[in-house]
Amino acid sequence: MTERFDVVVVGAGPAGSMAALTLARAGRSVCLLERGPFPGSKNLYGGVIYGRVLDEILPRWIDEAPIERWVTRRVTMVLTETQSLAVDFRSSAWGAKPYNGATALRPEFDSWLASEAEKAGAVLVCSTTATGLLLDERGRTTGVRTDRPGGDIEAGVVIACDGVNAFLAKQAGLTSTEDPSHYTLGVKEVLALAPDEIERRFGLEPGEGADFEVIGGTGGIAGGGFLYTNRETVSVGLVLSIEGLSRSETRPEQLLAEFKSHPAIRPLVAGGDVVEYGAHLIPEAGLAMMPRLAGDGILVAGDAAGMCLAAGIWLEGVNFAMASGAAAGEAAAEALERGDTSAGGLRGYRKRLEANFVLADHRRLKRAPHLVLSDRMQHQYPQLVCNLVEEIFTVRNPSPKQGIVAQARQERRKAGVRLRDLARDGWSAWRTFR
Amino acid sequence: MSRSSESSPVAFEDRMATTEFRIASEPHISVHGDSCRGCTTRACVTACPAKLFVPTSDGGILFNYEQCFECGTCYLVCNTEGAITWAYPEGGAGVVYRRS
After folding, report:
1. pLDDT (tens digit, 9 = 90+) per residue, B40-78?
2. How many CB contacts within 8 angstroms connect chain A with chain B?
3. How close A419 comes to chain B (CA, Å)?
C-alpha cells in the first residue's frame, strides 16, 4: 500500500531535520527519510557548528545538543613546506553563553536534531534509500520511490535534503551541474587523545575548543587543511580540489600524512591513534552551483542546494543547512495551507532565504570560492608572505636591517608575482570581502 | 609512542579498518571495463579516498564497492561518459560513521 504524507523530507541531516521539525510544528504530517541506519551515520564534516539559527526554534539547544567543545580559539594559518604563519585569535566571550561555534560529531548531533523533529511529531524512517522521485504526467513531483518493497510514498511536497550529490534535484531538472571544479573532497582522521592532553597541546581550558584553518599543506593541490578539537579526539583533515587531486600522483591519505608531519602540525597530533577515517564531498562553488530552489511539488535545501559557504576565512555549512531546511519547511507549510504546491506556490522559500543570511552571505561572497582556490592565493602569496616574515625576523648582523617596504618589493620579485596580478587580486579581494 | 605519530602513515588496510561498513548485497557502483581501456587519466585511481579502483595489467579497472565512503568523487572526476555508474547503496548498508 502506498503511504501518503503532507510532506516527505529526504535526508535526516541538519537541513532535513529542521524542515521536518518546522512542518510537524505547523501540524503537517511529515515523513523524514534517512538512508543510513541512524541520522548522521553517513555524514562527515570538519567541523564546527554555528547554532545561532537554533536560538528561536530550539531555545534550549545550548544545554541539550551533544556539543564536544565550545570554540574559544580560532587560528588561521598559512603553510609552506618549511614555514608557517598564523593569526591566532582567542576570545573568552566565546567560552560563555550564548557562545559562538561548537565542535560536535555529526552522528551524534544529527541524531539529536532528528530526535527533536520526532518529538514535534515527524515520522523518522531510517535504513531507507529514496531511489527517485514520483512524477505525474506533467513532470510534477508527487512523492518518492524508496528501496523498500512497495515503498512508494506520496506527498504534497518533497523536500530534497539528500546531500551534495543532489540526485533528486537532478531528476527534477532543477540542476544538471556535475562540473568537477565545483566540488572539493574532504578527508578526515579522528585521532584519540586524552582531554587534558588536548587542553595542554592547544592551550585550552576544560570544555573549550580550538579551530585551525590552514591554507597550504596540500601538496600543491588547491584546498586547505583543518584541525578541530573534540572532547577526547582531534579531527585533522584536508579539503582538496577533486580536479587537482585526480591530476596529481599523490593519493589523499598520503597528502594527509604529509600534512600531519609538517613541523607546525605534528606537535598537535603526534601520538594520536586513528580511531576513524572518512571522506565526503563538499559543494564548494556557492552561488555558481546553486540549483533552482523550487519546482512543482519539490524544494531543495542544504548541501543538495550547494548551500555551503567555502569563503576562505569563513567555512560554514551546518548553519546554512539548518536555516534553509527551516525555511523550506515554513514555505511548504504555507503552500499546503493555500493549496498551491506548484513552483510558484512554493516561492516563499526563496523569499525567506533572501531575507536571511543564506542567500545574502552567498551573494556577498560569490567571488570568494574562485579567489580562494586560485593558484596565486594557494601557493605564491603564502610563500611570499612567509619569506617576507622570515626575512624581517632574521638578524643578519653585521649587516643593518633593511626597510620592510624594500624587503617586500624584493620578495615579490623573487616569488615571481607580477604587480599587475597583485593589484588585480587585491582589488578582487576587496570586492569579495568588503 | 604509537605508530601513527611516526612520519610513515598507517597501512591503508588498517586505516580503512577503523571505519564501519555494512556490506550491501548488491554493488552500488559499476564500471564498464571497455571504456576504461582507452582512459589515460585514471582519475578515479588517484582520487577515490577509499582506493576502490585498481588498474589491471591489461589496461582495465578492477573495482570494489564494499568499503565505499559514498562521496561521489569517482563519477565526478571520470571523463569518460558512462564509464562509472554510481548510486547510493540500499538503505541501511554502506558506511556508518560511529556515535561514540
Report:
1. 889 999 999 999 999 988 888 999 999 999 999 999 999
2. 143
3. 35
